[in-house]
Specification:
This protein is of the alpha+beta class. The protein is built from 28 helices and 20 strands. Helix content is about 45%, strand content about 20%. A hairpin with a 5-residue loop joins β13 and β14.
Length: about 750
């Protein structure tokens, strides 16, 4: 039997796949031999392999063939045995296979063959996967290494969470594990880890994270049985017990802390047993309730400290509490009333928790006197109400258009936003009976009738001695904190109480230091107005005066402006008439241009103020002709070049005349530009496009249409149709497109006529 047959018998006797690869000179890998296990695994015959490359076999996918070839090349390049693991489908079952490739050299040292063998590593892979699944999901640190931690073979990701250091860093420098241990604990742990043979240990020690944080861990180490051909290993499980240590330390300190805290606490801390008897009473409880400790210990808490209206509810709830340690008040914060030793009630905040002592339920209560907080909340509520009211009144000031409307809106806001029962503004008569006359009010229908049944004066008599009269005479705010007891309110007390008015605030309305009226506000509760609320109401009174003065000034200013505007328009119309009187042939030209320009602007949807400016501009657009000799304007024949230049100068002359006249419209620019054209062909400046005012573009179209349709000394009227054709031909070139379109619609669709 030759060596080849002997080799085949050997590899056929092996249950795992064995194959021999021939390495060709060109780098081609072909199968030289395979055993029966390979043929069985692939479903091919042995003859299907011989002399063929792996990628030529139908049993291999393209990806697998590429992977085989890459590993053969790696073995060839390394010149030594290589191992790799891959997932394959063998005999219809998918699994993990571990393959070993060993190079074989000839007498010259060249690698001519590669012997490969594979074993099914699926079970091993599953074990490893389960191991990793367990170790990589637990919170404890699991590690394996050699004795003395000369090498770390495995550490799970929890190491990074607990120690704050990377696993790669530990693999690279195993002794960094010891470096992470607190200096005071490091030597003891080093001795245990370095012991040989490895011993089992359990220790608690501190570690220092890179950020300086110190944490406690419990480390349990144990030896691992020796590996085949190697020395023993050690493994460890490290648990972060920082929270446990903190809890133990907190538990040790809790009693002392409780004693110190409860003794110095500002809140009352009480404890009652399962029979409702007080078993603990701190100094704050004595200060808040007025009872010394010896007066309350052992006595029933609720009969001493709770108002009688709470007793029945307490009895029902306490029975359930003693049975199960639960109840509607447990774990919650309630606001109730309590009794002091002197019998007075006060508001308190109560938090109750349950505590089991020797199998019996006890209740621990923390009570806080919230009298000050309630007072502050009420102050804040009132201040917020006043601020909201002030803000709403300021909005009314902005929106107001007349004095009466402003007064009514202020009163309405005080009632609807401020929540007051009644608000009214009164003005002081300067003669006669010196009455204070209500000029605006707001409230319910019933409350407003209060003003119909009372008389208020500001003189020195009885009816002038009340808060409103005093505010007028003194110029200072008057507060009636309780209408039922304030003597100055006596004449109006019965009516006020019948309407539910228990407090009032009167703020004088001052103008240059003199009180001309009052702002009156009535509230349903006594003591309803605090200092902040009063200050905000005084600010509102100042705003009212400012608003009334501003509206009065605005009304007077508008009247003056209207008068000036009327004079301006009359002057302009007179000037326009003067110009046309000098040129009988163009009489009415400016009026017709103005009327057509207004109609075009309205068709374009311009606003009324702008349209009025266009009307005025149209009336005087030829005002510059006032300097043109009358014979030039009336001459029937052609003008000389010099005479024509004089006439062409009329836009600039008109501009110079009007540029100093103040008006809300750009009249001087309309006059200057009404002969300009979009393409720059106009005069006097040759402006183009948007450089020409829209108003001037409208006047230009109206001027051309009216001029062509009307008679002139130098020619008869050309008629409306030629005029419309002229502007249509210049649409978008010389004349504005929108203006031309609007003008044509007027004549074609709206039946507009040049009168």
């Amino acid at each position: 039997m030759d060596s080849t047959q002997h080799f085949r018998q050997i590899i056929d006797a092996v249950d795992s796949p064995v194959f021999v690869i021939q390495v060709g000179d060109s780098g081609r890998f072909t199968y030289l031999d395979v055993n029966e296990a390979v043929a069985h695994a692939t479903g091919l015959r042995r003859e299907d392999f011989l002399g063929r490359a792996p990628e030529e076999l139908p049993a291999h996918s393209g990806l697998q063939a590429a992977a085989f070839r890459a590993n053969y090349e790696r073995c060839l390049e390394a010149g030594e045995t290589v191992r790799y693991r891959e997932r394959l489908v063998v005999n219809g079952e998918e699994g993990w296979w571990l393959t070993r490739l060993t190079p074989v050299r000839d007498e010259t040292g060249r690698i001519t063959r590669i012997i490969g063998s594979s074993i099914n590593a699926t079970d091993r892979q599953r074990i490893e996967d389960r191991f990793r699944l367990i170790t990589e999901t637990i919170d404890d640190v699991f590690w394996i290494g050699t004795p003395g931690l000369g090498q770390v073979l495995y550490v799970n990701p929890a190491y990074e969470q607990v120690f704050g250091r990377s696993c790669d860093g530990l693999y690279a420098s195993p002794h960094s594990f010891l470096e992470a241990i607190h200096p005071d604990d490091r030597e003891a742990i080093r001795k245990r880890v370095s012991a040989f043979p490895p011993l089992q240990w359990e220790s608690e020690y501190r570690i220092v994270r890179p950020d300086g944080a110190v944490r406690w861990v419990r480390d349990r180490g144990f030896p691992v049985p020796e590996r085949e051909g190697g020395s023993g290993l050690i493994a460890g499980l490290t648990t972060d017990i920082t929270l446990q240590k903190q809890a133990e330390r907190a538990l040790e300190e809790s009693e002392e802390k409780f004693r110190r805290i409860s003794q110095s606490a500002l809140d009352a801390i009480l404890m009652i047993d399962d029979r409702g008897r007080l078993t603990y009473w701190n100094p704050a409880a004595q200060r808040i309730f007025g009872y010394a400790e010896h007066e309350v210990l052992g006595r029933n808490l609720h009969r001493m400290l709770a108002p009688e209206r709470y007793h029945e509810t307490h009895r029902e709830a306490f029975a359930a509490f003693t049975a199960h340690g639960t109840g509607a008040a447990i774990g919650k914060t309630l606001e109730l009333e309590a009794l002091r030793k002197d019998g007075t009630e006060f508001p308190m905040e109560l938090s109750v928790s349950s505590l089991q002592v020797d199998g019996r339920w006890h209740a621990v209560g923390v009570l806080r006197d919230i009298t000050g907080r309630r007072r502050a909340e009420e102050t804040l509520r009132r201040t917020n109400r006043a601020l909201r009211t002030l803000s709403a009144c300021n909005e009314a000031l902005v929106r107001a258009r007349d004095e009466d409307g402003l007064r009514r809106e202020i009163c309405r806001t005080l009632v609807e936003t401020g929540g007051y029962r009644l608000a009214w503004i009164g003005e002081a008569e300067t003669g006669g009976e010196q009455r204070i006359v209500p000029v605006a009010s707001a409230g319910t229908d019933g409350d407003r009738s209060y003003l119909d049944g009372i008389a208020i004066h500001w003189g020195e008599g009885l009816l002038g001695a009340g808060p409103s009269g005093t505010a007028i005479r003194s110029g200072r705010t008057q507060v009636v904190r309780d209408t039922a007891t304030d003597p100055c309110f006596a004449p109006w007390r019965g009516m006020a109480l019948a309407h539910g008015f228990h407090a009032s605030l009167v703020v004088p309305l001052l103008d240059q230091g003199r009180a001309y009226g009052v702002l009156n506000v009535y509230a349903a509760d006594a003591e309803a107005f605090d200092a902040q609320e009063i200050g905000l109401m005084e600010e509102l009174a100042g705003d009212i005066t400012f608003g009334l003065r501003s509206l009065r000034i605005a009304r007077e200013r508008d009247a003056a402006n209207a008068a000036l505007q009327k004079v301006l328009l009359q002057t302009i119309e007179a000037v326009a008439l003067t110009v046309e009187k000098r040129d009988p042939y163009t009489a009415g030209h400016q009026q017709r241009v103005a009327a057509l320009a207004v109609a075009i602007a309205e068709e374009m949807g311009l606003d009324g103020q702008r349209i009025e400016g266009i009307r005025i501009g149209g009336l005087i657009h030829d005002i510059g002709k006032i300097t043109v000799p009358a014979e030039y304007l009336a001459r029937p024949g052609a003008l000389s070049e010099a005479e024509f230049l004089v006439i062409r100068a009329h836009p600039e002359v008109g501009y110079e005349i009007m540029k100093g006249v103040e008006s809300p419209w750009p009249l001087s620019l309309m006059i200057l530009q009404h002969h300009e054209r979009l393409d720059g062909s106009g005069y006097p400046q040759g402006l183009e496009g948007d450089g020409i005012l829209l108003e001037a573009r409208i006047l230009a179209v109206a001027d051309v249409v009216e001029a062509m349709a009307s008679h002139r000394p130098y020619r008869p009227a050309l008629g409306l149709e030629p005029a419309l054709k002229e502007i249509q031909a210049g649409r978008g070139i010389r004349f504005d497109t929108r203006v031309v379109d609007a003008c044509i619609r007027l004549f074609r669709e709206r039946d507009y006529r040049l009168d």
